[in-house]
Fold this protein.
Amino acid sequence: MEGTEREGLLEVARLMALSARTAPKARGRDHLRIRVLTGEEKEKLAEKMEEMAGEYEFFRRDARSVREAGAVLLVGLVGEPLDLNCGACGSSCEGLRKGGKKEGRGCAGPICVVDALNLGIALGSAAKTASLLNVDNRMMFSAGVAARKAGLAEADVVVALPLSASGKSPFFDRAPP
Ligand code: SF4
């Protein structure tokens, strides 16, 4: 990638972080953890994904996409009950607090459904900014799971958005795993 495009890509990554941060949050409670990975950290993420490919083969394909990306935006959530007592989590806010979280295969939970919606809205907002500014991207649960495992993100659920600025998006028309 040329220097000018690289600078533009990093600027867009920062603007995407801003979009995720200012996206509307239920009850105004913000439990997001946002980071941008480049260079060695991005390589560490790709290596972790390859390591995990023994269990999930598609991680290998997604690792190639992460290597081809100029930067990776991580958006994670440290879920907290939002005190609406809506029951959508199958419990109550108090029940969720008392039960605590357990580590699963790729995330920690259970998590407040409304807080998880906050994460989804923030991800959509970040992707919208990338789209408006012509940066190719793709949301990857695989890369988010690996980022947690590699110690690159401290959150219960993480979704990664690798970013690219080239003549052909590396995130689509990929060979099936
Ligand atoms: S989903 Fe559960 S924790 Fe979240 S507001 Fe509803 S009852 Fe409370």
